[in-house]
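A note from the maintainers: we've had questions about how concatenated examples are separated. There is no special marker in the raw files; a new sequence line simply starts the next protein. For clarity in this README we add a label.
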Amino acid sequence: MKKRTCSAFSLLALALILGYPGHVHAEHVPSASKGRDYYEERGEIVWEVPTQNKVIALTFDDGPDEHNTVQILDLLKRYDAKATFFVVGSRVEKHPDIVARELQEGHEIGNHSYTHPPFHNINVTKLSSELNQTQDAIYQATGMKTVLFRPPGGSYNEAIVSTSKDLGMLTVLWSWHQDTLDWRKPGVSRIVRKVLDNARNGDIVLMHDFVPSSTQTVEALKVILPELQKRGYSFVTVSELMSYHEKSRKFIEVNH
């Protein structure tokens, strides 16, 4: 099976095609005045991808987990679905074989910090350490480093966006209508309804493959995957989803 990953160059090329300006260094200070429109127009944060194609990106945070992640990988394989796993570095070190399997089976790996600390007030020194340690852990497990980053809790400001970009990573969040809140253990049916009732082309769905003492996400996927497949959706990685952006006018081949 082919491994599909996207290089920093590919992401930069896509940003240029979409008409986004280049990176401008900003002061590394929190800024509450800059919202989604500012970062989305600059191509510095991705929430979803406007497209007429029936493609959806499933994303899983906080893993790897020796139980849930393995079961999720088995389900994804059954439905020929690809996903993006935003991994926690300290957990990668415990389960490098699972992360290696994710990549080998065509999925994408993203950086989700090393210890999953609160990011709403993180200083730049701690931020850089969290990202770099996770990059190192991913490299040790897979022989590659990721170009995608998702901050814990979805927190972002100038420091977070700028630092991640300086380290060669694009910040990726999720579609606001596709936050399953599965980490709260709301029940399988609620997770299922959240995804199925709101499914749209170009969605980035937020789920978690590490939720202590819960298999709700795994059970929900047993319903979500076949139903969305029945509706004609294909499941792609975040980098593949970006290549379907309607402004690009054509599919941009992702590096293999």
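[label: protein 2]
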Amino acid sequence: MTKKALIVQGGWDGHEPEKVASIFQDILKDENFDVEVADSLDAYADVEKLKSLDLIVPHWTMGEIEQKYVNNISQAVISGVGLAGCHGGMCDSFRKNVDWQFMTGGNWVAHPGNDGVEYMVNFKHSSSALFEDMDDFKVVSEQYYLHVDPAVEILATTRFPVVSGPHSTNGSVDMPVAWTKRWGLGRVFYNSLGHVANIVAMQEVSHMMRKGFLWAAEGKTLYQTNSTNKNEPVYTGMGDSQ
């Protein structure tokens, strides 16, 4: 059966959301997904439609979202739908919504040096085999500093500081670049690379996104195959920001 994916693009134009969404669409179509691309957050209004998908791909930066839409996405992911995205299009989408940050596993706070920083992406070959075929590589782009959920499984890191600043006096740290997380029965994947379309189009980055999309979407199939309880309760514990 053909898998279904929804890409929702928009927000800050500097991240070239329309161009990036087109790259994502091509990747997913190449993997035989039926892909819908929307340019409005109203695409999240129908929770039953969202729950019918295999994958949701948000690419919306620095926006504001109605709480009911976040609840709908959360309910869909809890039920097994995958959630996967990159850069500010997923972990700088809605700065005022902590529920979104809880679900996605982290949020952007800085990119010292802004765009044009040269740094290494180092893969962590841990219990996940997702990027076992990839080698470390160099990129020239924004180097994201993120606040990250300790529950995530880190797949790749970058070394800070590369650019000096007030953070430098803390010493060197390994900052997550890519991770996976579980949200209910759903799989969540994030990659901090992808500032603009030409970075997303890099062979290494597009390969990371392809692998992440497939991994996240596979979760629903595995759930439907193995689950004995199709009526899991909807999580209602994200009330502090509502």
